[in-house]
Amino acid sequence: MRNPVRPVALCALLGLCACLCACSARSATTAASKTASKTLITVSEPAIQPSVAVQKNLDLLLTKKACPGCNLVGADLSRMPLSGCNLEGANLAGARLSLADLVGANLRKANLAGVVFGGADLAKADLTGANLEGAVLDGAFVSQAQIRSAHGYRPDQSVIPDEDSPEFLLNAEQLQTVKRLFDEKACVNCDLSGLDLAGRSFRGFDLEGANFQGSNLEGADFHDAKLKGSNLQEAVLRNADFSHADLSEADLSGAELTGTRFTDVVLDATKVDAPLDTGPVKNRSTR
């Protein structure tokens, strides 16, 4: 007599096998899907190529002083000597040009969207037709006529006009600082970095601890000024006059000092790159 349980057990066994096969198939499908997904991600990641292209164009620009129409998106050109360079039609979106020398540069129809120009010198640069949407011009040496020749600029800065020198742009905080500086003839420990203050008179001003890093101070008059502990790193000090000023503990590292006068100055613990042409000096000590 046959055992009636066996067909039931056989069916259960067959069902279990089918279930295991289905699970195995689903696992294989999922694994294949993940593999395919990973493969797609890998194929669509040419992340290095754009930076290589930008670097190549940057090298060309620095060598030839010209790279019209080229891709320089996001490039760091801070403090670069780019006077007279040809960047007509170039794409510089998001680039950094803080304290760059762009005197007389050709930037016609260039894409300058989101570019940071803090402290850059754009004197006589051609901005005709350039896109300045989102550009930051705080402290840049640039005229309103130049800005009007471009398009897209929406300033939230204020402009201080000056009859003797080109206009320069300031944000609200800098504006208040500069006003206080000239109203009170003092600005202790204040931030004046990256500004164009060429030819201004600071005669007898109290500027102890002031930060002038990267500022354009060409031809400025600091006669009898108190500049103890001030930061003048990378500042343009051509033909400036520091006669009888107190520059003790000041930092002039990297400053441009052609024709600068240091007659009878106080230089105790002053940081300079090379000995200064001084004449009579008080307590001269450099390091």
Written description of the protein model:
The protein has 287 residues and is mainly α. It has two domains: 48-170, Pectate Lyase C-like, CATH 2.160.20; 172-287, 3 Solenoid (Pectate Lyase C-like). Helices cover 26% and strands 2% of the residues. It contains four helices and two strands, in the order αααββα. The chain has a two-stranded antiparallel ribbon. A hairpin with a 7-residue loop joins strand 1 (158-160) and strand 2 (168-170). The protein is elongated, with a radius of gyration of 32 Å. The chain starts with a helix and ends in a 103-residue tail after the last helix. The relative contact order is 0.06. Mean pLDDT is 77; it is low at 1-5, 7-12, 27-50, 157-168 and 281-287.
Blueprint of the fold:
Layout: H1 5-43, H2 48-64, H3 144-149, E1 158-160, E2 168-170, H4 172-184
Antiparallel strand pairs: 1-2
